[in-house]
Design goal:
Helices cover 45% and strands 19% of the residues. By secondary structure, the protein is of the alpha/beta class. It has four domains: 129 residues, Beta-Lactamase; 71 residues, Helix Hairpins; 147 residues, Histidine kinase-like ATPase, C-terminal domain (Heat Shock Protein 90), CATH 3.30.565.10; 130 residues, Rossmann fold, CATH 3.40.50.2300. A five-stranded antiparallel sheet has the order 2-1-5-4-3, with helices on both faces. A five-stranded mixed sheet has the order 7-9-10-12-11. A five-stranded parallel sheet has the order 14-13-15-16-17, with helices on both faces. Helix 13 links the parallel strand 13 and strand 14. The N terminus is likely disordered.
Length: 569
C-alpha cells in the first residue's frame, strides 16, 4: 500500500517562510480581495482593461454607469477608441505621428502607443455614451506587462471631467467679460482724456500767448490771465490724477524700473518747487548728498510722488513756515525720503484716513484747491515700485510724509561720471533763411494757436492743412523742414499720414512731431513706436512746444547738410 505524502502541518500562529502566519496571510488575501472588489465595483471611476490588441476585457461598474453600456456589450467586442470622439482620436494619432516621427494609424493603438513605451500617459478626451450623449473625461492609460516585460494589455482609468470643464468655461467667460470691461474702460478713459484736453489746449494755449505777447498786458489783464492759467492747469492736474488712478486700478499702468539717481531727482524737484515756496514765504531745505544714492524705481513716477508731497507740504503750511527734505538710509537695502512741514498737523484719526480717494480731511472748505486724489495715486505708485509710504503728524507742530524705496547700484553711465551737457535751442541769425513748418490739424482754435506761436519767429513760416490727405500733398509739394501732426484727423489718422510720409522717399527725411489730445501712456507709446520724431500732448506748453520744434528743425538741417555733402569713394 503506497504511503500518502502529506504536507507538513503548520500550527496556528507558526510563521511561514514569508514571515507571515497563516492567519495573517489569510487576512491579507481577504483584505486584498476586498480592495480589488471595491475598486472594480467603484461607481466613481471607469476602469477599462484591454488585451494587447486593444480589445476590451474588463469593464467595471463605474464604466457602465458613466457610458451606459453593460460589460457584456463591450467585452471582447470593441476597443476604447470606439467610444471616443473620432475627431479627437484622429487628432491624437496625428500628434503622436509628429512627435515620434512615424505614421500612427488612428484608433486605440494611437492612444496606447506612447503608453507602451513609457510608464503612463494622461490626457483629456470626450467619451460617447451608448445613448449618443457626450462628456469630457480625464484618462490615465498604463501598459500592463508580464514577468518577461512583454505587453499583455492596457489599463485605462477615467474620471468625469464635466465639473472642472464647466468651471473652466465659466472662469474663461468671466475673464473675457472682465477683459472686455477693461478694454471698454480704457477706451472711455482715452476718449474722455481727448475730449477734455482739446478745449483745454485752446484755453491754456491762448492764455500763454496773451501772457507773453506784445504789448505787455496791463496789471489788471495780467491778473485775469493768471487766474485763467491757474484754473486751467489745476483742471489739467485733476484730469491727469483721475486718469492715473483709473489706470492703476485697472492694472494698465506700466512702470519702467531702473536705477534712479536721488541727487538728480531731488535737483529737478527743487527747481520746480522752490518758486512756489518763495511765493508763499516758505523756507525750503534739501539734503546734501555725500553718497550718490540710486533707487530702483520709475524716474518719472518718483518725481511725481515727491512733487505731490512737496506741494502738499507748501499748501498746508503756516505763513512763513518751513519744509525740510531729509534722506535717511534704512539698513540693509532701503532709503527713506521724508518731507517735513510746520503746518497745523493732523489728529490720529485724520492720519488713519490718509490715502483714501477724494478725502481731503476737512480741507474742502479751505482756500486751498485740491482733489483728494494725489496721495492715493502716490501710494499706488509707490506700492507698484515695491516701496512703502506713510505719515506721522502732531497737531500744532506739523507733519512728516515719507516714502521708502529699495537701493540699487548705479548704472554704468552714471558710475563713469559721464554727463551729457544740455543742448541749447539753436538761435537763427537775422539773415537766416526761413524754414517752413507744416501744421496738420482740423480744429480751428488749435490751428490759430500754433499760427500765433509761429508768427513770433521771424525764421519760420507756417503752412496749415485741415486733414491728413491734404497734409501729405502739402508735404510732398512744399518740402517743409518739420511737420506738426494731430492724431485724430478727418479721413485718415495722423499715424496713417505719418506712415505714408515715411514710406515716400521724398518726405521720409522730414521730422514729424505729434501734437495730440490722446495723452494716455499707451497712446504716447503707440505714437513713438509708429515713428513720430516726438510726441507732445495737449494742452501744449508754449516753451516745451517751441523747444521740441527747434530740436526737430536742427535735426532737419543736419540731415540736409549730410545729404548735400559729396559722396566719398
Amino acid at each position: 500500500m503506497p504511503m500518502r505524502t502529506e504536507s507538513p502541518s503548520v500550527a496556528p500562529g507558526t510563521a511561514r517562510p514569508d514571515g507571515m502566519t497563516g492567519t495573517q496571510r489569510e487576512n491579507a488575501l481577504l483584505k486584498a480581495g476586498a480592495l480589488q472588489t471595491a475598486i472594480l465595483t467603484s461607481a466613481n471611476f471607469s476602469i477599462i482593461a484591454t488585451d494587447e490588441k486593444g480589445i476590451i476585457q474588463l469593464f467595471n461598474v463605474g464604466a457602465e454607469r458613466m457610458l451606459g453600456y453593460q460589460a457584456a456589450e463591450v467585452v471582447n467586442r470593441i476597443s476604447p477608441s470606439d467610444i471616443h470622439d473620432p475627431q479627437e482620436v484622429m487628432a491624437r494619432a496625428q500628434a503622436l505621428s509628429l512627435e515620434l516621427g512615424t505614421t500612427i494609424a488612428p484608433g486605440f493603438e494611437a492612444l496606447a502607443f506612447k503608453a507602451s513605451r513609457e510608464i503612463e500617459d494622461i490626457y483629456e478626451l470626450t467619451y460617447i455614451c451608448k445613448d449618443g450623449s457626450r462628456f469630457p473625461a480625464l484618462i490615465s492609460i498604463t501598459a500592463l506587462r508580464d514577468d518577461y516585460n512583454d505587453i499583455i494589455g492596457y489599463l485605462l482609468i477615467g474620471t468625469d471631467n464635466s465639473v472642472r470643464k464647466r468651471v473652466e468655461s465659466e472662469l474663461n467667460r468671466a475673464m473675457a467679460t472682465a477683459e472686455k470691461a477693461n478694454l471698454a474702460k480704457t477706451d472711455f478713459l482715452s476718449g474722455m482724456s481727448h475730449e477734455l484736453r482739446t478745449p483745454l489746449n485752446a484755453i491754456l494755449g491762448f492764455a500763454q500767448v496773451l501772457e507773453s505777447g506784445a504789448p505787455t498786458p496791463t496789471p489788471a489783464q495780467k491778473r485775469n490771465i493768471d487766474q485763467i492759467l491757474k484754473a486751467g492747469w489745476y483742471l489739467l492736474d485733476l484730469i491727469n490724477e483721475i486718469l492715473d488712478l483709473a489706470l492703476i486700478e485697472s492694472g494698465k499702468l506700466t512702470l519702467s524700473r531702473e536705477p534712479v539717481s536721488l541727487v538728480e531727482v531731488m535737483l529737478e524737484c527743487r527747481a520746480m518747487i522752490e518758486p512756489q515756496a518763495k511765493k508763499r514765504g516758505i523756507a525750503m531745505s534739501f539734503p546734501q548728498f555725500e553718497v550718490p544714492y540710486f533707487v530702483s524705481a520709475d524716474r518719472t513716477r518718483v518725481k511725481q510722488v515727491l512733487i505731490n508731497l512737496l506741494f502738499n507740504a507748501i499748501k498746508y503750511n503756516k505763513p512763513d513756515g518751513a519744509v525740510a527734505v531729509v534722506c535717511t538710509p534704512c539698513p540693509p537695502d532701503s532709503i527713506r525720503i521724508s518731507v517735513q512741514d510746520t503746518g497745523a498737523g493732523l489728529a490720529p484719526d485724520q492720519v488713519a484716513q490718509l490715502f483714501q480717494p477724494f478725502n481731503r480731511l476737512g480741507k474742502e472748505a479751505s482756500a486751498e484747491e485740491g482733489t483728494g486724489i494725489g496721495l492715493v495715486v502716490s501710494k499706488r505708485l509707490i506700492d507698484l515700485m515695491g516701496g512703502t509710504i506713510g505719515a506721522d503728524s502732531i497737531v500744532g507742530e506739523g507733519s512728516v510724509f515719507w516714502i521708502e524705496l529699495g537701493l540699487t547700484t548705479a548704472p554704468l553711465l552714471a558710475a563713469s561720471g559721464v554727463e551729457r551737457a544740455p543742448t541749447a535751442p539753436p538761435q537763427a541769425p537775422d539773415d537766416a533763411p526761413r524754414h517752413t513748418v507744416l501744421h496738420v490739424e482740423d480744429n480751428p482754435a488749435n490751428l490759430e494757436l500754433v499760427e500765433a506761436l509761429i508768427a513770433r519767429r521771424s525764421d519760420l513760416r507756417l503752412l496749415s492743412a485741415a486733414d491728413g490727405n491734404l497734409g501729405i500733398e502739402f508735404a510732398r509739394t512744399y518740402q517743409p523742414a518739420a511737420i506738426v501732426m494731430d492724431i485724430n484727423l478727418p479721413g485718415i489718422s495722423g499715424i496713417e499720414a505719418m506712415r505714408r510720409l515715411r514710406a515716400d522717399p521724398s518726405t521720409a527725411h522730414i521730422p514729424i512731431i505729434a501734437l495730440s489730445a490722446n495723452a494716455m501712456p499707451h497712446d504716447i507709446e503707440k505714437g513713438l513706436e509708429a515713428g513720430f520724431f516726438n510726441y507732445l500732448t495737449k494742452p501744449l506748453k508754449v516753451r516745451e512746444f517751441m523747444d521740441a520744434l527747434d530740436v526737430a528743425l536742427a535735426f532737419s538741417k543736419a540731415k540736409s547738410v549730410r545729404a548735400a555733402e559729396p559722396a566719398t569713394v
